[in-house]
Design brief:
367 residues; Lyase, Ornithine Decarboxylase, Chain A, domain 1; 30% helix
Amino acid sequence: MSYLDQISSPTLLIDEKITRANIKRMADKAASQGKKLVPHWKTAQSHEIGNWAKEYGIKEVTASSIKLAEYLCGQGWDTIHIAFPFNIRETKKLNELAANQSLSVQIVNPITAQKLSDQLTNPVGFFIEIDAGYGRTGVHVSDFGTIKEILRIAKSSNKLKFRGFYLHPGHTYYTPDKQKIYKQSIDALIMLKTKYSSEFPDLVTRLGDTPGCAVMEDFGDVDELGPGNFVFFDLMQAELGSCSREDIAVCLAVPVVDINRERGEILIHGGGVHLAKDVLIDKDGNKNFGEVVALHENGWSLLPDRSYLKSISQEHGVIKASQSLLNQVQVGDLLGILPIHSCMTADCMGGYLSLDGQWVDHAEGCH
């Protein structure tokens, strides 16, 4: 039976071949420069896709929350890093997980460091997150007083173990000059490693975001790379130049429920609860919530003429359709939508249907 015969409502499809190619490409890039690839698993959130990643030499992963870390525990990962400023209200859960799994957390202030020093019952590593220009979170790269205080607290603890410095230059998503941002980020990490490596000879530096890791060819003396979205990519990454549309590994299959040929619009069952509400604005000022592809037995293919999702509500979506699409589509057909932000779409959908008709797990789903 075709995978298409299993679909009656919005369903997130995954192309295993494209996913594996994306993972292999990034793993090869890291290996060619002697870097360790520690992917951020907030995108895939899957045991099965994690097993694919292990085939390409990936042994550690990063989680976006302690909830995701718990889901990933017991799956054979050497270490799971929680890349979010640690929430001290979750220390009890951290202790439970650390009893059986090597974990590390992210610390951005001395208060959190002290609470963990006082309350940890099992060894836990930590990175100090550094802010070198993004401005979202982290200790400012020149705030040596805060860094010194965090390290002082950790040295007095027999459970809290310093691993190194973590930097997420998220402004590569908003600034065209990714080379400049990466040079600043790499320089910041090298400076910190030089300053603290005599005291902590085993410290490592980790740098990670998909736009930068996808386009950069030289990561200097940084030890580890931690991108996440590269596993699937999406339309935002294509717009940023991180990938081509052919590299996008997930696609939302949606049923057609009505067609208005006079307006050139197609109504689908597929909205914000399936795709989230990330949006791109095209050169003419039109909102784009996803682009239409044709579904077939072997997956999906790009259309010769652009059709896109012009608006979404909770369950509905309205496609602005090309004439060629209008000429062939019928009520009850299935169309594919390439997501703007694959991480959020996967999180909304909570599972994947492979092209051979098998369900692939997701941390938020029941499949």
